[in-house]
Specification:
Elements: H1 3-15, H2 21-29, E1 36-39, E2 43-47, E3 52-54, E4 56-59, E5 66-72, E6 96-98, E7 108-110, E8 120-127, E9 133-135, E10 140-145, E11 151-153, E12 158-159, E13 164-169, E14 180-184, E15 187-188, E16 198-201, E17 210-216, E18 226-228, E19 230-242, E20 247-248, E21 253-262, E22 267-272, E23 275-279, E24 282-285, E25 294-302, E26 305-308, E27 312-314, E28 316-327, E29 332-333, E30 339-348, E31 353-358, E32 364-367, E33 370-373, E34 377-385, E35 388-391, E36 395-399, H3 401-424
Parallel strand pairs: 2-10, 12-19, 20-28, 29-36
Antiparallel strand pairs: 1-4, 3-7, 5-8, 6-7, 8-9, 8-10, 11-13, 13-16, 14-15, 14-17, 17-18, 19-21, 21-24, 22-23, 22-25, 25-26, 25-27, 28-30, 30-33, 31-32, 31-34, 34-35, 34-36
Length: about 425
């Protein structure tokens, strides 16, 4: 009561005829400042078949005692009737439970709500004093829905290592008791717990990417999928060679660079040894040659980083070439001696099979990388590996007849000298 009001009342009491004390108390008691109902939430959205708790508290003047408390959904009453008590309504009696008391708490629970329960509800209390009644108006508006729209919100761009908070939203504010369930790729998430309607992903990994959805426990309605796209630099960069088997000179060969990255790498570079040779995911070589042999690797780049692959070796096989014969000495045979011929070639794998031929003869006269020529003639070698063969040019081996005559003469003079010497003795 304000100071001015109290002063006016005192002045009025002094000048007016005395009134009974009970009248003065009644004037104090009807003040609306002492009567009231406070609801914790004025609007509640609930799912069909769920349980709703409408929390509230109420106040009344000192000296009053509560005789009756109840909830009603009728705002206006008839002239001769009280507001209807929902606990007496057959549609509510089995589902409505008063959780409050006859002092201050007026909380009520309504279970198994139906679509027809969508109304505005009011708390009503009656005291032991005449006209000591109150209804909490406006009340609590309950909206019961059978279908609801769940939406999952997330940041537009997520990079590996970020912390991401996914939020599940519905078309109405659900009760505090609603429990949200999260799934990734249709599998329930058990390793992380949600806080109310949020899912926190700390230090996002590449494996956290996928389709996320949310639902409310006890209900079959599931939100539309939200695709969480996690960005990360290239990893698992590797090179594959096609064909994967033996590569022979003249074949067509394709090197393919693959990498795991998001977004996909837009810059792929190829290196032979440490030298840049080409760009692009695929490096094709038609009619490959031995010059293309070597170690190759690729580099994958996106906006978040780069990575090199391990080096792979391209080993090109080819048949013998540049076959030649190396001859020891002058190539002149002295009687009783020989000339050694050696065969050399360039091939991959190295030639292990060598054949020697005398020109104009079809049959081989020797084998092995070295050959001893005992007679004059023109000789050549043929080198073989599993990919082919090639012959060398012929070399000429010549016998020296003069050397034979000199040798015979020397032998005859030695015999004569030995005979004379033996005779003298």
């Amino acid at each position: 009561m304000s100071y001015n009001t109290m002063y006016f009342m005192l002045m009025w009491v002094r000048t007016a005829p005395p009134l009974p004390l009970v009248f003065l108390l009644m004037i104090h008691g009807v003040s609306s400042d002492d009567w009231g109902v406070s609801y914790s939430r004025s609007h509640i959205c609930a799912l069909k078949d769920s349980t709703v708790i409408m929390s509230c508290s109420y106040s009344y003047p000192t000296g009053h005692q509560i005789k009756n408390v109840f909830w009603t959904k009728t705002k206006d009453k008839k002239d001769t009737e009280e507001y209807p008590d929902l606990s007496n309504d057959p549609e509510y009696s089995q589902r409505l439970q008063y959780l409050g008391d006859k002092q201050q708490n007026c909380t009520v629970r309504l279970s198994h709500v139906t679509l027809k329960d969508s109304h505005e509800y009011y708390f009503r209390f009656i005291t032991d004093k005449p006209d000591g009644k109150w209804i909490g108006h406006p009340g609590v508006t309950l909206n019961v829905t059978g279908e609801f729209d769940l939406q999952v919100e997330s940041p537009e761009r997520v990079t590996k290592g970020d912390s991401v908070r996914l939020t599940c939203k519905s078309s109405c504010t659900l009760t505090d008791r609603a429990t949200f369930i999260w799934s990734r790729n249709s599998q329930p998430l058990t390793e992380r717990r949600d806080r109310n309607n949020e899912l926190l992903l700390q230090s996002v990994r590449r494996e956290d990417a996928g389709r996320y959805s949310c639902a409310v426990h006890g209900h079959h309605h599931i939100s539309p999928d939200l695709h969480l796209n996690v960005m990360y630099p290239p990893k698992s960069v590797s090179v594959s060679i096609s064909p994967s088997g033996v590569i022979v000179e003249g074949d067509s060969v394709t090197l393919n660079c693959s990498s795991d990255s998001n977004p996909p790498a837009l810059n792929i570079s190829w290196f032979k040894g440490g030298t840049f040779v080409r760009s692009g995911i695929i490096y094709s070589i038609s009619k490959i040659s031995s010059d293309d042999s070597g170690e190759y690797k690729c580099r994958s780049i996106n906006e978040h980083g780069e990575k090199y692959s391990d080096a792979v070796t391209l080993n090109v096989m080819y048949s013998p070439r540049s076959v030649s014969v190396l001859m020891s000495g002058s190539g002149v045979i002295v009687e009783g001696d020989s000339v050694t011929l050696s065969c050399s070639s360039d091939s991959n794998p190295p030639a292990l099979n060598f054949s020697w031929f005398k020109e104009n003869e079809t049959s081989a006269v020797g084998s092995g990388q070295s050959f001893s020529a005992l007679q004059s003639g023109r000789f050549y070698c043929q080198a073989h590996n599993q990919h082919g063969s090639q012959r060398s040019d012929a070399v000429t081996v010549t016998a020296n007849p003069c050397a034979s005559v000199h040798l015979i003469a020397s032998l005859e003079w030695k015999s004569i000298i030995d005979h004379i010497f033996n005779t003298i003795l």
